[in-house]
UniProtKB/TrEMBL annotation:
An example Gene Ontology CC term for this record: cytoplasm
Chain's role: Probably acts as a heme chaperone, transferring heme to an unknown acceptor. Binds one molecule of heme per monomer, possibly covalently. Binds 1 [4Fe-4S] cluster. The cluster is coordinated with 3 cysteines and an exchangeable S-adenosyl-L-methionine.
Cell compartment(s), UniProt: Cytoplasm
Name the UniProt record assigns to this protein: Heme chaperone HemW
Native source species: Empedobacter falsenii
Length: 375
């Protein structure tokens, strides 16, 4: 099986924390969609197995109109095997999901929404410079459900300067009350050269408090797991049968094709990424060339990636793969540090897999780095 990720690099406005590639200038949107369709055609032979998932990310994919979205589906169905297609996700902003838009989306193959709620509180949304308000955050979910969309995930951000522990608890309770079956939740991070980074450096906004972020992460885990959510990845919580198939395949190392400006692809041995420039992307594709760089992953890079991804999920690190796929120096180094982590009660062995202890999940990346092999 394989997946396709399609990056739609347009937004109505810039969120204060965002460092993804996008543009608020929609002047060349039609030309870019044509280029995306052409890239899909050019790269059709890179995937030899049937598609299982399609994911529209961004940016704001819900900004696409009917003609643009239908043209992408037409191109995919014409050039790829879709007989095993199970999950088609569209990222959407709450302010885009009105009755007219949902009525159209119901007629498409889309069967899963990822709604960028971020918070149900006005003060949080203003800090993040989101395009929607608190009422739209709630209404968009209810409307999507009214139109028959059950497979819905929402994004929630914790740890901002406006998000007290009480506000965070209310955010979680609101999501639970709305019967959302999947939640992706992330700590607010301050990336360089973002609006938020500038505001903090100028003293306009207070810096984030890592201790409070840790507290709110624990509130997140405790609240959702006690309400029948399964934490199947550090930042992702789903009820039974509502895990993201597309993202789960990422974490399991299944191949995927990244289409559009800045999109990444992976085939097990190499990683490729497209240029993060809309005009240059369009120009290069129109010349029948791919605007991408390719990196061949060596053994150490493949090993370290397996460690990083494995520890973040309930699937863990497969010891059978460690023992069979990598050379002895890497294996020896892994087990030496692993024994230390087990003694520190940070990880445990279950059915020949290594998983994090629940209390260690907030520190997953740091623990993974201890297992990395350093040349």
């Amino acid at each position: 099986m394989a997946g396709i990720y399609i990056h739609i690099p347009f937004c109505k406005q810039k969120c204060s924390y965002c460092d993804f590639h996008f543009s608020t200038n929609l002047q060349h949107k039609s030309n870019l969609i044509q280029a995306i369709n052409k890239e899909l055609e050019i790269r059709k032979n890179e995937i030899s197995t049937p598609l299982e998932t399609i994911y529209f990310g961004g940016g704001t994919p819900s900004i696409l109109n009917e003609i643009e979205l239908e043209s992408i589906f037409e191109t995919i169905y014409k050039n790829y095997s879709t007989k095993n297609l199970k999950e088609i996700t569209l990222e959407a902003n709450p302010d885009d999901l009105n009755k007219e838009k949902l009525n159209f989306l119901k007629s498409t193959p889309i069967n899963r929404f990822s709604i960028g709620v971020q918070s149900f509180f006005e003060e949080d949304l203003k800090l993040m410079n989101r395009a929607h308000n608190a009422q739209e955050a709630e209404t968009s979910i209810k409307l999507a459900q009214d139109f028959g969309f059950e497979n819905i995930t929402i994004d929630l951000i914790y740890g901002s300067t406006t998000t007290t522990n009480e506000v965070w608890k209310q955010n979680l309770q609101k999501a639970i009350a709305l019967n959302v079956p999947h939640i992706s939740s992330y700590a607010l991070t301050v990336e360089e050269k973002t609006i938020l980074d500038h505001q903090i450096k100028k003293g306009i906004t207070k810096p984030v408090d890592e201790d409070r972020q840790n507290e709110q992460f624990q509130l997140l885990v405790d609240t959702l797991t006690s309400n029948n959510f399964i934490q199947y990845e550090i930042s992702n919580f789903g009820k039974e049968n509502y895990f993201s198939l597309h993202n789960s395949n990422y974490w399991k190392g299944i191949h995927y094709l990244g289409i559009g400006p800045s999109a990444h692809s992976y085939n097990g041995k190499t990683r490729a990424w497209n240029i993060a420039n809309n005009s240059k992307y369009i120009q290069t594709i129109n010349e029948n060339k791919l605007p991408q760089e390719i990196e061949v992953l060596n053994e150490v890079e493949q090993f370290n990636e397996m460690i990083m991804i494995g520890l973040r999920t309930i699937y863990g690190i497969d010891l059978n793969r460690i023992n069979s796929e990598f050379s002895q120096p890497l294996v020896n180094s892994f087990y030496q540090e692993l024994n230390q982590l087990i003694n520190e009660n940070l990880v445990e062995k279950k059915e020949n897999r290594i998983i994090l202890k629940p209390e260690a999940k907030f520190f997953a990346d740091g623990i993974a780095s201890r297992l990395f092999y350093i040349d």
